Amino acid sequence: MVKKIAILPGDGIGREVVEGAVEILKTIGHYYRHEFDFQYGLIGGEAIDQCGTPLPDETLELCKQSDAVLLGAVGGPKWDQNPAHLRPEKGLLNIRKQLDLFANLRPIQAHPTLQDTSPFKGEHLEGVDFLIVRELTGGLYFGKPSERTNQNGEEAVVDTLFYKRKDIERILETAFELARKRRKKVTSVDKANVLESSKLWREVAEEVAYRYPDVELEHMLVDNAAMQIIHKPNQFDVIVTENMFGDILSDEAAMLSGSLGMLPSASLSANGLHLYEPVHGSAPDIAGQGLANPIAMILSAAMMLRYSFHLMEEAGAIEKAVKHVLESGKRTKDLTNHPNQYVPTKQMIEEIKEAL
Amino acid sequence: MVKKIAILPGDGIGREVVEGAVEILKTIGHYYRHEFDFQYGLIGGEAIDQCGTPLPDETLELCKQSDAVLLGAVGGPKWDQNPAHLRPEKGLLNIRKQLDLFANLRPIQAHPTLQDTSPFKGEHLEGVDFLIVRELTGGLYFGKPSERTNQNGEEAVVDTLFYKRKDIERILETAFELARKRRKKVTSVDKANVLESSKLWREVAEEVAYRYPDVELEHMLVDNAAMQIIHKPNQFDVIVTENMFGDILSDEAAMLSGSLGMLPSASLSANGLHLYEPVHGSAPDIAGQGLANPIAMILSAAMMLRYSFHLMEEAGAIEKAVKHVLESGKRTKDLTNHPNQYVPTKQMIEEIKEAL
Ligand SMILES: CC(C)[C@H](C(=O)O)[C@@H](O)C(=O)O
Ligand SMILES: CC(C)[C@H](C(=O)O)[C@@H](O)C(=O)O
């Protein structure tokens, strides 16, 4: 059966890395005899320029008629001064909300082969393999009011951290389900000594844990978590947390895997239409120069094969190919300290294709 | 002239480390001929047990009649199930609010002598020396509403991130003033691609920067900052950010200095009454066992000498003594990997006293 995949390259290096994922998927399709139908849509700055909105209706429609969505990255200085509703990031936030992509999965693994450019000592990274499950459609990102206001004539501003109990519940359930298939430990990160939302979060976590007696639950305050991720990263299996905490902690944790250019992500909805994107952004500073690392995007495509299409073997093949290429010493610029010993984006894609 | 110092030991290891600071200050007073008058007050769990409130009026009164406040730490499992207003942390939040301690200074330095227990490669920590300026009386910590609610019959919860323009302005001014005395670079951390409060923050940062043409201003998104603190920590001079971001980033950055047990902090008000506390908490797991590292508290006392009493030489003497003791190989338990080669809290205090 044909799998329909919506491709949203977005801005900056988004296009460059998306092309890598498409090529790798074509190769997979060829070897394993799957038919992928790629349909392109606009999002972000590109969509603002061409349609006057960061998430055109046609794009949303295209996604809804697809079996999965691959997204590159959005944003760039060109649109930074735009009003909020005309900023590329709004396209990303809107698609997350519109497709109800509430569970953002960010797997963190240390790659021993990348040890030379890591800030960490080698032994410190042994056994690092955890999954951050970030709530993606609530919290400070979407709460209202979010606006300038005034208090007794003084200019002020407000943002709102809002969660419904059932939104907390479903993200925690997702985390427990995923932990069941891993090492059966969930670390729920909150700030329950200060925030009311965290107190409810903790309460719900306890309730959900009750239904998963085979999975261990631990609570950790977000400040401590930011420290523990560096201090003892191999203590974690599944970390689950709200939107903003997850944003911060996952970028921090990215350093354990060597580069943001290595980190894939999957954003899952309840209805089975999922979106896959690299954790990195559009990197306008290196866009168009062939310097981007396509691995995060390619590994995101592997996650798509696994989570959307249950093609476990195919997903594993991509991951193995990436590993093989890294072991052979090939590096994009973000992965090396040597000013001239790196391969351009296209060549990295070729290498992975060949390794397949 | 006699300097009146309010001493609030609090809970857990708070008492143990506060005694260290008092001893060191007595020694300084003796050598440099200053008179310090120490008056003790209750805060946190201890205050809940004895007075039924985490911040008794007498404690607040005592602080207001003092020239500076030294605080140990608050909190412990005994009070974890209490309702919000009877939790030790509330005492800490209240004293910050009541004394208007809006600027929390957290200096981060890497100590080459602690390299063996650091997760980082040695060369990575070279030149790491920055100051986090955290807004301490606003944001999600104090915004209202902060409560359970319901939306169309569904249980929900809300917290509020609120700032007045002038509160953003004064913390940024503090950061620029401090940067002027350092390497003249301010990194303002926000999430301006999502939060309205961050957009105002960025606007105000630009305005304030205009008045400090000798200081360089750079903006950084909080997720990127969480990464950059690990990736290239020596790029920073002064980091300024709102309350919650500062909480998370400063605990993360603590790892650069080896242990949370090393990190002092100063919380400054506009009226000259400042509070000094270690960044670490009450560590109930090791309380009463003589295992606590008193250095963060002792360095907080040094910050007091510097910021409240302008005793630069005396502050420097304490910092030098601490450095000397660390160089001589003495370690508290948090600073060593060797299970039996550590000194108890009291001995560490003695060593620093002798080094003075
Ligand atoms: C671009 C931005 C809005 C986004 C976020 O904060 O969610 C990004 O940082 C991410 O983590 O996907
Ligand atoms: C104890 C807690 C309320 C406090 C905070 O979050 O401010 C602590 O983590 C700190 O950083 O001083």
From TrEMBL, chains A, B:
NAD(+) binds at residues 76-89, 281-293. Its cofactor is Mn(2+); Mg(2+). It is an enzyme of class 1 (oxidoreductase). Homodimer. The record marks 141, 191 as: Important for catalysis. Belongs to the isocitrate and isopropylmalate dehydrogenases family. LeuB type 1 subfamily. NCBIfam families: leuB. It catalyses: (2R,3S)-3-isopropylmalate + NAD(+) = 4-methyl-2-oxopentanoate + CO2 + NADH. PROSITE patterns: IDH_IMDH. HAMAP family: LeuB_type1. InterPro entries: IsoCit/isopropylmalate_DH_CS (IPR019818), IsoPropMal-DH-like_dom (IPR024084), Isopropylmalate_DH (IPR004429). It is found in: Cytoplasm. This is 3-isopropylmalate dehydrogenase. It comes from Aeribacillus alveayuensis. Its EC number is 1.1.1.85. Catalyzes the oxidation of 3-carboxy-2-hydroxy-4-methylpentanoate (3-isopropylmalate) to 3-carboxy-4-methyl-2-oxopentanoate. The product decarboxylates to 4-methyl-2 oxopentanoate. Mg(2+) binds at residues 223, 247, 251. Residues 4-352 form the Isopropylmalate dehydrogenase-like domain. Binds 1 Mg(2+) or Mn(2+) ion per subunit. Keywords: Amino-acid biosynthesis, Branched-chain amino acid biosynthesis, Cytoplasm, Leucine biosynthesis, Magnesium, Manganese, Metal-binding, NAD, Oxidoreductase. PANTHER family: 3-ISOPROPYLMALATE DEHYDROGENASE.
